[in-house]
Design goal:
The complex is a heterodimer of chains A (about 240) and B (about 650). Chain A has about 240 residues and is α+β, with helices and mostly antiparallel strands. Chain A has 2 domains: about 100 residues, Ubiquitin-like (UB roll) (Roll), CATH 3.10.20; about 130 residues, Fumarate Reductase Iron-sulfur Protein, Chain B, domain 2 (Orthogonal Bundle), CATH 1.10.1060.10. Helix content of chain A is about 35%, strand content about 15%. In chain A, the strands form 2 sheets. Chain A has a 5-stranded mixed sheet with strand order 2-1-5-3-4. A two-stranded antiparallel sheet of chain A has the order 6-7. In chain A, helix 7 crosses helix 9. In chain B, about 60% of the residues are buried. In chain B, helix 1 packs parallel to helix 11, helix 2 packs across helix 3 and helix 13 packs parallel to helix 15. Helix content of chain B is about 35%, strand content about 15%. Chain B is α/β, with parallel strands linked by helices and about 650 residues long. In chain B, strands 1, 2, 7, 8, 9, 10 and 17 form a 7-stranded mixed sheet that branches. A 5-stranded mixed sheet of chain B has the order 18-16-11-20-21. The chains are: A alpha+beta (about 240), B alpha/beta (about 650). At the A-B interface, helix 1, helix 2 and helix 3 of A face helix 3, helix 4, helix 10 and helix 15 of B.
Amino acid sequence: MTASRTLTFHVFRHNPRDSGGEPGVREYQVEETPGMTLFIALTRIREEHDPGLSFDFVCRAGVCGSCAMLINGRPGLACRTLTSELPGTISLFPLPGFELIADLSVNTGKWMRAMSERLQAWVHLGSEVNPNQIEAAMDPDLAEAVYELDRCIECGCCVAACGTALMRPDFVGAVGMNKLARFRLDPRDDRSDAEYYQLIGDDSGIFGCMSLLGCQDVCPKELSLQTQIAFMRRAMARQGL
Amino acid sequence: MKIIHSDVLVIGGGLAGQRVALAAKRRGLEPSILSLVPAKRSHSVAAQGGMQASLANCFKGEGDNEDVHFEDTVRGSDWGCDQRVARMFAHVAPKAIRELAAWGVAWNRVRAGEHEAVINGQRVTLTEREDAHGLITARDFGGTRKWRTCYTSDGTGHAMLYTVSDRVIAEAIPVHERQEALALIHDGHRCHGAVVRDLITGELSAHLARATVIATGGYGRIWGISTNALINEGMGAALALETGVARLGNMEAVQFHPTAILPTGILVTEGCRGDGGVLRDVDGHRFMPDYEPEKKDLASRDVVSRRMAEHMRAGKGVKSPYGEHLWLDITQLGAAHIDRNLREVKDICRYFLGIDPAKDFIPVRPTQHYSMGGVRTDYRGESQWLSGLFSCGEAACWDMHGFNRLGGNSVAETVVAGMLVGEYVADFCQSRHGDQEISTALAREFVQREQRGLEKIIANPGHENAVDLRRRMEQIMTDKVGLFRNGPDLESAVAELAELLARSGEVGVNGGLDANPELVLAYRLPRMLKVALTVAMGALNRTESRGAHFREDYPARNDRDWLNRTLACWREGDALPRLDYEELDVLRMELPPGFRGYGAKNIIDHPDTAPRQAEVDEMRAAKLDRYAVQSYLMSFKHLLPLKYRGRNERLDEPLP
């Protein structure tokens, strides 16, 4: 560890329910400590400087997807971002594309539930199984491939980094298309491509993607979002013919 | 006053809560779920290594069944659990995992043929049978006699939570996100719902229901360092405690996990050791076989954690700016295995430690991990003291874990308890006991009381600082109510926590009544302190060592005097909780108390143990079918909902 730094944070502050309040940026100074993450730094800011500062951390381990924000302009998970990897001045803004709750807290949960309802993002079962019986066999490689796409944590980074999503509030985002790619791959879901076409076969879905690759660049789980979107687009284009 | 009605109010949106809601919905009821955070961000998501269910598909799981899972669970609990509940659980776990498999969890599957594995530091070749190809596989975990822990890489909780949450969305169950229950609405006999605060607007409302279910997870965040998510502050336990009627069970039973990283306490899964990883000390020496020659690194969690602490006390720890630690070494597993089966561990190492676990050792130490104690309920999940109040999952003490939980039994419990308690909740709602007879005047009274409480906090001049008091509480719990406990430390912990509780009423807040994190801490702090006091007092009173509760001044497990369950109740106006005890009946145990096989045997026997053991031995000597023996020794199937009584099919155990 090199000599300790004093970090300067520029943090967005605004509570939209506070009628007189104007959005602004507040500055805080924090002494950097070894292994410091933005979770540790923001907790310290709240405890020592600004007890009213709102932000969302739950697992603080990079798995729950709560703490996505703009870190020096780039969407990322704050909890697993080490300050040692950032310059001495750090700006933190709430994730764009989502309803602002206050300061760095945005309502990703509401957005994700609405997206899931709209895309019917669940396994569509032919019939319920008898749980006393041995489970249906599944190819081990296929199970791993499904899990690979299932690793999405709904953090919202891909939406915040998406050009289409910023222009079209109804765009389902890479998160939505990846979900359908996951269910399409899953033999337990009995939907056909014609049914998926009904869900995403337009400009608010698969044909709205401009292939800017922002989603894949920022995905904290390094999901192959562009590949999945490309596969889905090809399958949906075939349906549209 | 806003009033929201439903049939079943579920407090907590993790696996247990969502599964209860699904069961209720499928019985024709209207459930609603309250969650502090979006449901998919609940702490269930953090479960890594897997879910135990005796499927017996993989080679090292052959011969596994409910009996073996049951016995492992009871031994793991150090005979502190309710054996009927452990039986119900072991019986339903295979059904739960098969249901999840059908709903979409991408469980890792058996590959027929040869594959390599690391067992006890040796690379060995195992051969999987042809007819198991494509069935759900399992890995080894601590304290189990078979490979029984089913997994999706090391993101098992994530895969399960997303699948169950997706079903909740599919079945149109409302989830009220960013809503917090502040108090249960009750008349001293019957629970009618909860006063709920919107964490965005600050608005209070009354949620009224026939049945109310606490599924809020554990209370790990009363310790300074915990593997738990930040939201696991014991608010469910506090809700029950503050009724003055409902009781908490075994609050002193708290598990420390052997392998959390420094400094923040993020967990790396037991699957690391299950898959062949080992613990090493400052000299690089693998020390667990020195202490536990039989189970070594895969002894039960309470045992491994204590051995690690013991080894560090002996001067074998590694010094660091954050205190001492030991090493977890998974380098022998190889990069390919880690990339495929331990990828979250790899991510954690990369992002938080800047190391590659395929090449470097991981710095770990025992860290608070799991709350065996919780809202005391019967086997149906209902409080025996407050009708209509149910609880399940980590929040509850229906008591399948006793004084130590096995790895892999936690996420398994969430879904199994959700399935079972959900049915009992539905039975309750559909019986005359479930009729709703609440007056809105009572609801208003409760809402107004909470409103006045919040206004009082805002109006406080603020002589006390909530952050300082909280840090002190965390330090007390870590120093004096941790892995090793003793009378004088526990006495001072109780005294100091009681003083903090008195001071917590003087905390002042700057902001207003809406989205205000300062206010949230101010009203949760006294509740956390009450929960902490039940833990510390339970630990002080229990003058024996059992499972994760270890008293240096009382190292023996004392079945004669302490084969019982602690109950804590907090009457309004009292300065401290009141404790009393519920006996466990040895004469009705299927597995009478015995030696777990760790360290030297140090048990004071219960007088009923020997006669009961003789009865059990006689029955086993009769060589009857295993179902017949089990049913004779401790019948439990009549306790299960009808739909879950059927036998579980296995490759070598076809259904009759």
